[in-house]
From TrEMBL:
Top-level taxon in the UniProt lineage: Eukaryota
InterPro entries: PGG_dom
Sequence ranges assigned to domain PGG in this UniProt record: 53-165
Region annotation (Disordered) ranges: 1-51
Protein name: PGG domain-containing protein
Any one GO CC term of the record: membrane
Length: 211
């Protein structure tokens, strides 16, 4: 009598003890490395451990965050600090009329023109970057890709720019330095491995001295 053949790849525990044939049982999925789910593995990269903690984020959570940033950037762009002129207002310099501020024009544009253009540029950049992040996540681009990470950093830091620029008492160059510092900090937090990130922050804050 011919003995039943068993597929060489069949698991030993899946054999029928009476017939010797491989059974049709279903095994649970094998655990993935580093305790990540299969969905996180697909989002984070090609089968390797995550290079940083950013890739462990859920794509749906980031999509909601990108939508919120888009909404905030839109509201900032349509609600300029200082408001708008309520009526035509003549501007006088040394007793002479040199211009007329039209009703409905932004007050910030007429009185603080450089600050106004920085504010509008930041709001538009934040709006566009958040839309790029939203589109990247909708087309299933990996969370750890540069498109998603860089668009988030630019969009999130633009909110800081619009906030500090809306305060006319600070110098514009200082506002831009704050934006550059926030941009660099966010990129360090998102891009670097947690161990390396801690060393970089320690070097920046403590001048490389050990604790």
């Amino acid at each position: 009598m011919e003995e039943p053949r068993v597929h060489p790849n069949a698991a030993p525990g899946n054999l029928d003890l009476e017939t010797g044939r491989a059974g049709g049982g279903v095994y649970p999925p094998l655990p993935t490395p580093h305790g990540q789910s299969g969905n996180q593995q697909r989002l984070g990269g090609a089968g390797a451990g995550p290079p940083n903690s950013w890739v462990g984020n859920d794509a749906n959570t980031l999509l909601v965050m990108a939508t919120l940033i888009t909404t905030l950037a839109y509201q900032l762009g349509t609600s300029i600090p200082g408001g708008y002129w309520q009526q035509d207002t003549p501007a006088l310099v040394d007793g002479k009329q040199v211009a007329t501020y039209r009703a409905g024009d932004p007050i910030m544009r007429d009185l603080h023109r450089p600050r106004y253009w920085v504010f509008m540029g930041a709001s538009w950049v934040g709006f566009a970057s958040s839309m790029v992040m939203t589109l990247s996540l909708l087309v299933r681009m990996p969370v750890g890709s540069r498109h998603v990470r860089w668009s988030f950093v630019v969009a999130y830091s633009s909110l800081v720019v619009t906030f500090v620029v809306s305060r006319p008492r600070t110098h514009l160059s200082l506002d831009l330095l704050i934006w550059a510092a926030v941009l660099a900090f966010l990129w360090i937090v998102i891009s670097l491995h947690p161990d390396r990130r801690a060393r970089v922050i320690q070097d920046l804050c403590c001048g490389g001295r050990g604790t």
